[in-house]
Design brief:
The chain has 240 residues and is an alpha/beta fold. The chain is built from 7 helices and 13 strands. The radius of gyration is 17 Å and the shape is globular. The structure holds manganese (II) ion.
């Protein structure tokens, strides 16, 4: 049986008062998970109780990309360049991460997801790379979603190296926030050449892997990126 993988999603309110909130998730996440042998279940933001229940009922949790994280969750006021925030999604995903780690449920955290993961476990973020990181390269590419626009160096002794290889790996980039102080119990598995954190992992024997890029957009053009989903789904299947 295919392991059940919960995928978090965004919500958007229409400008028209007559329309209610909608949940949205790019198809690429479902496509990559399905190709890797997983069964995707989309998770709308719920309360803390639902986060605990879902984290133990599901075989894996995928935190998808989306809006900026509210900096109050790491004790800061908003930087002028902070973008849109979704308070309900923040609360739900932070609770979901803590519950999943408590339950031993594998986590794959992508883009916003790596940031949520880091903050949930006590780390901090750069709220805006261009104004807070000296000498930063371009992390918001003007190129197709699948295109690998910058290099990261993957740490040899990491789970990530077992998926995409150690050393230089080309990735896409659609972010202006990034992990700043890494949460206790986690280590950096990849960095870009400007020092920005592009990957973190649990230092414990749990599959808790975060990447700052969007591997789900790259699986057709860069088959190694599908290995990230394959490794995650294999962990979820083992748990099932
Ligand atoms: Mn980047």
């Amino acid at each position: 049986m295919r392991p059940l993988v919960g995928v978090t999603c965004s919500s958007s309110s229409s400008n028209e008062a007559s329309e209610s909130k909608r949940y949205t998730l790019p198809h690429d996440y479902v496509y990559a998970l399905t190709r890797a042998g997983g069964e995707a279940v989309i998770l709308p933001a719920g309360d803390g109780e639902s986060a605990i229940r879902l984290a133990s009922a599901l075989d894996g949790i995928l935190l998808s990309g989306g809006a900026d994280l509210d900096p109050r969750h790491f004790g800061e006021d908003p930087h002028p360049r902070l973008g849109h925030i979704d308070p309900e999604r923040d609360e739900f995903e932070l609770a979901l991460v803590r519950a999943a780690i408590q339950a031993g449920t594998p986590i794959l955290a992508i883009c916003r997801g790596i940031q949520v993961l880091n903050v949930a476990m006590g780390g901090t973020l750069y709220q805006d790379i261009p104004s807070q990181v000296n000498g930063a390269i371009k992390h918001r590419q003007d190129a197709p979603r699948y295109h690998a626009s910058h290099k990261v160096v993957v740490e040899r002794h990491s789970k990530l190296a077992g998926m995409v290889g150690a050393g230089d790996v080309l990735v896409n980039s659609f972010h202006h926030q990034a992990v700043r102080e890494v949460a206790p119990g986690f280590f950096v598995s990849a960095r870009s050449t400007d020092g920005v954190v592009e990957g973190i992992e649990s230092a414990h024997d749990l599959f808790v892997v975060g990447v700052q890029w969007h591997p789900e957009c790259m699986t057709d053009q860069y088959p190694a990126m599908l290995e990230i989903f394959a490794a995650f789904v294999a962990e979820a299947a083992a748990r099932r």
